[in-house]
Specification:
Number of domains: 1
Radius of gyration: 16 Å
Protein name: FtsK domain-containing protein
Largest sheet: 4 strands, parallel
Pfam families: FtsK_SpoIIIE
Helix content: 25-40%
Keywords: ATP-binding, Nucleotide-binding
CATH superfamily: P-loop containing nucleotide triphosphate hydrolases
Order of helices and strands: HEEHEHHHE
CATH class: Alpha Beta
Structural class: alpha/beta
Strand content: 5-15%
Distance between the termini: 27 Å
CATH architecture: 3-Layer(aba) Sandwich
Number of strands: 4
Strand order of the largest sheet: 2-1-3-4
Shape: globular
InterPro entries: FtsK/SpoIIIE/SftA (IPR050206), FtsK_dom (IPR002543), P-loop_NTPase (IPR027417)
CATH topology: Rossmann fold
Number of helices: 5
Length: 165
């Protein structure tokens, strides 16, 4: 069982043919029986995550679907933030069990493509006056951690120093 409170985000990186897909499959199989919503971004046309589509709550396989799904996820995080505010909780893990929403695990294959989608979503959220505020998409990952979200970029062949922060 994976405790999403202690390990909310991770990255699977490695050279071509190093076993990233095998590891990703093992992670998905271990998460499948847990009480979580699994959301997949597979921008290689669905070749990695389509076999798991019956268990996934949502699967995006192209840029348009990804932008739409990310917008939905931003809305979900905002709803969870409102729920926490209404009950005086710092995060979903401190809400009473009966009110706690199901954790959302976001599985990403081909993270470079998803970063392009995130950038497109951030640009769509920016204010016309040129304000630097990234809007809800810019803080999705850190805020999602507090509200039962978990990001799993499962495949990365060559992580550069600019990617890992």
């Amino acid at each position: 069982m994976i405790d999403l409170r202690t390990v909310p985000h991770w990255l699977n990186a490695g050279a071509t043919q190093s076993g990233k897909s095998n590891w990703a499959n093992a992670v998905i199989k271990s998460l499948a029986p847990q009480p979580v919503a699994l959301v997949g971004f597979d921008l290689k046309g669905g070749v990695e995550f389509t076999p798991y589509a019956p268990r996934l709550s949502a699967l995006a396989t192209n840029r348009k679907e990804s932008v739409d799904l990310l917008s939905d996820l931003v809305g979900e995080v905002e709803n969870r933030m409102a729920l926490c505010r209404a009950h005086g909780a710092r995060n979903v893990w401190t809400l009473p069990e009966a009110l706690r929403p199901v954790p959302v695990v976001v599985l990403v294959d081909a993270d470079r493509a998803i970063s392009d989608v995130l950038n497109a979503l951030v640009q769509a959220d920016q204010k016309p006056d040129g304000d630097d505020d990234d809007g809800p998409a810019g803080s999705l990952v850190p805020v999602a951690k507090l509200h039962g979200g978990s990001l799993r970029p499962l495949q990365r062949s060559r992580p550069g120093s600019g990617f890992i922060s």
